[in-house]
Amino acid sequence: MQLPESVPSLKWLAIAIAIYWVIWISLEGKMWQVLALSLGLTILLADAIYQKKIAGRTLSVGRWLSLCAIAGLVLGLMFGPLTIIFMVLKTGLHGHGPEFTPEEIAWVINRIPLFTILGALIIGGLGALLAGFNDGSASN
Question: What contacts 124, CB < 8 A, 6 or more positions away?
């Protein structure tokens, strides 16, 4: 399977995340806002790794799916701690007290295993879809 050289639409996501970051800093802390920021940055991190390590290569479908599952596990595992870092950063930038309650922080920490599994399933599933679309032997 031949992998594309780049994913051009993610440039627009990077611009949107940068704009959202500026807006997010000024808003009061809400869980969905910090989760959205973490998700966007996780997607951009996945794209950066893809661009640097495997873009343009030819891989077997099995190897591609293995890489997707492993990348999904790692990115899913990173999502929770990244969210916690943003929660701490937001609290540190706003001098009026904590932006997030201990219950909200515990909620994120307790869901790190779920985020990890979801990362593997989502990235693995997207990788399988891409492999299916990239299969030159499929007939219409």
Answer: 65, 68, 69, 72
pLDDT, mean of residues 34-58? 89
Closest CA to 72 of 111, 123, 113, 126: 123
Q: At what angle do helices 112-134 and 102-110 cross, to 10 degrees?
A: 50
Q: Which stretch of 16-25, 44-53, 78-87, 114-123 has the lowest confidence by average pLDDT?
A: 44-53
Is 73 within 8 Å of 120 (Cβ atoms)?
yes
Specify the pLDDT at position 93.
73
Give dist(CA 102, CA 106) in Å, integer.
Answer: 6
Contact 64, 131 (CB under 8 A): yes
- HEC profile for 55-121? CCCECCHHHHHHHHHHHHHHHHHHHHHHHHHHHHHHHHHCCCCCCCCHHHHHHHHHCHHHHHHHHHH
Share of the chain above pLDDT 70, in %: 94
pTM equals: 0.82
